[in-house]
Amino acid sequence: MDSTSAHPPHDRPDATEAPQKRHPASSPASSPELADLRMRLHRSRRQYPDFPSPGILFEDILPFFADPLLHRSLIRALELQVTDSYGQKQTPDVVVALEARGFLFGPSLALKLGAGFVPVRKQGKLPGATETAAFEKEYGKDFFQIQTDGIKPGQRVLIVDDIIATGGSAAAAGSLVKKLGGTLLGYLFILELDFLKGREKLDAPVNTLLSSQEERS
Predict the structure, then answer these.
(1) Strand pairing of 94-98 and 156-164?
(2) What is the per-residue pLDDT for 72?
């Protein structure tokens, strides 16, 4: 997803739409295996101060994919988060991932969960009939699209992306799922920039593996 890996100082205003009522996260998973995987991933991510511009702290998740053991750990952690949060009988029928970094792990997670995979892309990049939703960026509007046959009415859908920042793009993806008649189970992110309060814009449970609020030891 564009620009979500870089976050501004805490006093920079949020440029997305006015917040909706906060939807609490699902109960955090507490299995020892998941806790161990989270710690392994937490220690492996990289942070770059003042990138791509001064005052920005860039969160780099690419080390998770450079090492096959870390990659496997990431997919397993996401799988456990889903099954612990929703139960074996409520796992998604479809995993929807946001362009672009959600595509790095969305298909693999869908395969592990026995679910289909559907991409949400920027306007003009998908062929055939599509639905469109707008979302606010720092310097104007952008648009997401999904193919109209990607989700069948009543299918359970999980939306995934690498990072939740201001929440506008994830909310747009949620609106697309609902336009197609899908049942939105919730959202799953690798990282959350807590101080931007993006989850307040989302109207389904939010789960994240890691938080960027605390310094790594």
Answers:
(1) parallel
(2) 98
Residues designated catalytic: 101, 138
Cβ(98)–Cβ(45) below 8 Å: no
Task: Count CB-CB contacts under 10 A for residue 167.
Answer: 27
What is the mean pLDDT for each group of 10 consecutive residues in the chain (217 residues)?
Answer: 45 36 44 95 94 90 97 98 92 97 98 98 98 88 97 98 95 98 98 92 95 51
Length of the chain: 217
Closest by Cα among 76, 71, 114 to 95: 114
Nearest alpha-carbon partner for 171 in 206, 138, 139: 206
Phi, psi angle pair for 140, to nearest 5°: 135, -170
Report H helices in the chain.
32-44, 63-66, 68-86, 106-113, 168-179
Distance CA 140, CA 32 (A): 43
Can you list the positions of beta strands (E) in 80-180?
94-98, 116-122, 130-137, 140-147, 156-164
Backbone angles phi, psi at 158, to 5 degrees: -115, 130
Q: Is 59 helix (H, G, I), strand (E, B) or coil?
A: strand
Q: How many CB atoms lie within 10 A of CB 142?
A: 17
CB neighbours (10 Å) of residue 35?
Answer: 14
The whole-angstrom separation of Cα 165 and Cα 198 is: 5
CA distance 215 to 217: 6
